[in-house]
Structure prediction request, 388 residues.
Amino acid sequence: MADLDSFRAEARAWLEANCPPEMRLPLKDDDDRCWGGRKAVFKSPAQKLWMERMAARGWTVPEWPTQYGGGGLSREEAKVLRDEMRKIGARSPLDSFGIWMLGPALLRYGTEAQKQEYLPPIVRGEIRWCQGYSEPGSGSDLASLQTKAEDKGDHFLVNGQKVWTSYADKADWIFCLVRTDPNAKKHEGISFILFDMESPGVSTRPITLISGKSPFCETFFDNVEVPKDRVVGELNKGWDVAKHLLTHEREMISNMGMDMGSIGRMAARLAGEDGTGPILRGDMARFDVDAMAFRLAIERTGDMAKAGQAHPALSSVLKYYGAQLNKRRFELLMSAGGADALEWEGERSNEGQAARTWLRTKANSIEGGTDEVQLNIIAKRLLNLPGA
Ligand SMILES: Cc1cc2nc3c(=O)[nH]c(=O)nc-3n(C[C@H](O)[C@H](O)[C@H](O)COP(=O)(O)OP(=O)(O)OC[C@H]3O[C@@H](n4cnc5c(N)ncnc54)[C@H](O)[C@@H]3O)c2cc1C
Prediction:
C-alpha cells in the first residue's frame, strides 16, 4: 500500500506538471480525439505535446511491458494512474486500434520479432491501425469470410473486399482476416495477417452514414503482395487470434462513455442547470447508479482476467450491457436537451454534436458483434442453455 501511495503522489505531481490545461477540458467533438499515425493531424500543439509526453513514459499504454515501450505498471498502479487522470479531467493521450485490439493479440500470439517491430510504434502513436474483419457477406457469421490469400512461395497474394472498415482511409496498416485454406472447414482455413495500407493494390471508398459523418470505408484488395512473416499466430489458425482480439474489442466498446462523468453534469452542460424536471432527474440518478455499478463490474472482470479466472464470454456480457448503457446515456441527454439538442448545425450546438453522438450510439449494439450475437454467446457459453 505504501508503494501505491508513493506511486499516486508521483503520478499526481507528474500529471500536474505535464498535462497541458487544454488537455483537461472535456472533449467537444470527435476531432478532439488523438489517433496519431503517419498522417496524424493534431488539433493543437497541446494535443501533440500531451501524446508525446505520455508516450515517452509509456503511459499511453500503462500496462504493457517496458521492453515494448509500455509503462510496465501493475494493474493496481494503472488503476491509480487512471484515477489521477480522471481527477484532473485529463483526456486520453492516444486513441488507437493498436492499443485496444492488435496489441493484446500480438502480446499473446505474436513472435518476439513481431512484438519488437509493431508494439513500440503503437505506444508512440506513430502507426495507426484499422481492422479488416467484416465483408459484404460476412458480419455476424464472420468465419464465412471470402477474402483470400494465396501462397506464392515467398509471399501471399491477397484479393477480396472488406466493409465497415473504420478509418481505413486514415490508417497506415491493417490487421486482416484472410482465407488461406479454401478446402478446410470454415473456422480452420483462416489466417490473421498484417500489411501496410500503402501496399500496391489496396484502395478504400468512404461510406456515408445517418449522422452525416462517416468513419467507415469499403476496402478493396487487388493482388496485394504480403510477405510471409506478417502472419500472426499459426497459418490457418487465425480464428483463435481473431477471437482473442474480439474479447478486447468488446471490452473496449463496453467502456464507451464511461469517462464522461455524471449524466447530470453532461445534461447541465447541454441544457443549463435547470433544464430537467423531477422525473427526468430520477431517471438520471438511476442511470448514474447503474453506471457506477457497471464500472465496478468492469474492474472486477479485469481483476479476474489478470488472475486467469475470467471466462472469455464475460466480454460479451460487458459488451451487451455497456452498449445498452451508452445508448441510455444519450437518450437521457437528448430528453434533457429537448428540441434544442436536435439542432444539427451551428455554433450553439457545436455543429450538432449531441444529436450526432446520440445517433452514433445506435451503432454500439452492432459494432464488435451485435446484441443478438452476444446474447447467443452468453446463452451457449455461460448459461449452457438447452438448444443454444
Ligand atoms: C460503428 C461500427 C464500426 C465498425 N467497425 C468495423 C471495423 O473497423 N472493421 C470491421 O471489420 N467491421 C466493422 N464493423 C462491422 C461489424 O463488425 C458488423 O456490422 C457486425 O459484425 C454485424 O455484421 P453485419 O453488419 O453484417 O450484420 P448481419 O450479420 O447481417 O446481421 C443482421 C442482423 O441479423 C442478426 N443476426 C445475425 N446472425 C444471427 C444469429 N445467429 N442469431 C440471431 N440474430 C442474428 C444480427 O444481430 C443483426 O441484427 C463496424 C460496425 C459498426 C456499426
In short: Residues 130-134, 139-140, 162, 164-166, 363, 366-367, 369-370, 372-373, 376 surround flavin-adenine dinucleotide (CB under 6 Å). The CA atoms of residues 379 and 385 lie 5 Å apart. The first strand starts at residue 129 and ends at 132.
